[in-house]
Amino acid sequence: MNTDLGNYRKSYEKQELLENSVSDNPMELFQKWFHEVDEHFDVGETNAMTISTIGGDGYPKSRVVLLKKYTFEGFIFYTNYDSEKGRAIINNPNVCLSFFWPAAERQIIIKGKAEKIAENISDGYFESRPRGSQLGALVSHQSEVIESREILEERLKNLEIEFEGQEIKRPNFWGGFVVKPIEIEFWQGRPNRLHDRLRYKLDEDFNWKLDRLSP
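Request: output the structure for the sequence above.
Response:
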């Protein structure tokens, strides 16, 4: 196989990103961009983000998860703590998040440290999930090898019978992480590949320092 993609090219011309138009706090700029993309561009799931972790084998691995909440403290998502992703984060909390919104010609890259959120917050979110999603968290031994699809479906049927008419409690192995950022880079596509890249980085006094990066 020899597939040449050298002719795949796009000119980025929609917007610009200048220092005099941004906040001193990157979370405020994140909120601004998120709302603009969510309201004015057709990107499907605006909250879809890629999280990269370092596994026990020393290799990085990236996968898409859904952002469920963000605050000035950081970015919250939920997962199975015993999954490959969960174990990797617990063993090495240094992670990277990225959002790519091609319709807006924008990308955000976030370096940070992940930690488990309070159990009562995970409880509250789990209670808000559809019943099918609650059962799905119990059914799947995430990341483990499974012999067939039928096994999953059989587990689900059994749990539907077991919990019929009952409240489903959050299992201890499932919950949220918050990624507390130490660096956030905003990328805006520009013509001739002279893209705008603004990076916020925490200094030793926990203040955000803003720099422009060469494209």
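The chain is about 25% helix and 30% strand.
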